[in-house]
Structure formats: structure tokens, C-alpha cells
Design brief:
This protein is an alpha/beta fold. It is built from seven helices and five strands; from the N terminus they run E-H-E-H-H-E-H-E-H-H-E-H. Strands 2-3-1-4-5 form a five-stranded parallel beta sheet, with helices on both faces.
Length: 184
Amino acid sequence: MNMSVGWCVWVTGLPGSGKSLVSRALVELLNKKNISVQLLSSDELRKILTPNATYSIEERDTVYAALIYIANLLTRNGVNVLIDATGNFRRYRDDARSQIARFIEVYLDCPFEICIQRETERKETYNAPTQIYKKALQNRALNTVPGVGQPYEIPLKPDVVVKNFMRTPQEAAQQIYEVIIAKK
């Protein structure tokens, strides 16, 4: 029995760049096109793996290793996967690319100031911690927020770059969808 291999799309960007909104818009678009996909959110997985999250590098390593393991397992069994996760270190996304046969990296390019504004004003958090930029900027020395106290390493060669400060989540989802279809 030869089961087809699923694909994996990782939507990355700074906190507040729109990953959750774009990911959910993409799931909706794919479902309308009769393409099934499993959404994996690092924030949801973190609630299970590390309920009292510290966001240390060691903890991030564990969460991202689990996320990649699950995505790899699902894709090998024919399930399409969409990862909604900052993945602030490039090595996380590179690990996923090296382990998952059909992998697409999507970078949501959004200016830091807009990310701060969005994160501060958002109503729906999709299990993400709240007011992270405000807390991080008040105490830079002790914080773990990517882009403030921890680095966010921009992808070197993403498959898709979405200027997410210039697009609606639906427009971003359409842009990503077109790349998924082209690479199928």
C-alpha cells in the first residue's frame, strides 16, 4: 500500500505578525478547496508540554522538537500540516525542513512596531500569552520574547514572504495557497 506523503507549511514571524490569523484563514481556504489540513499551534502544544511555561531556550527546544516530530509523523502518514509557530531560531525551521519531505516555510514580514500594536490590541489570543511586548519592554534584561530579549532569526530562503502589514489574512492565505498548489 503506497500512501501519499502529506506536506507541511510552517508560518513563522515575530509575535503579533499575524501567524494565527493567517493560519486560520489558510485552513478555511484549504477546506473550501476540499484540501484537508491539520493545524499545529506551538501555543496550544506548549499548554500541554509546559503548562507553566518559562520560555527558556531549553523549553523552546523541547516544544519545537515535539512540534517537528508530530508534523513529521503526520506528513509521513498522508496528513497535510500547517504549523503556526514563531520558531525564533532558524535551526528549528531548518530541522523541520531536513526531516519533512514536503516542506514550505512562510515568513510573515511585519514591522516590529506593528507587531507590538497588534499584540497589544488583539482580542483573540489563540492560547498565546498576552501583553508580552509591554512586559518585555519594561524589563529587557529578564525577558524571553523574540525580537526583544531573544533573537528572531529571519528565514534566509523562505518559500513564501508575505508582507503581512499590507494584506488581510485572507489575501495572505491566498498567496500561500498558490505556492502550495504550485509545489504539489
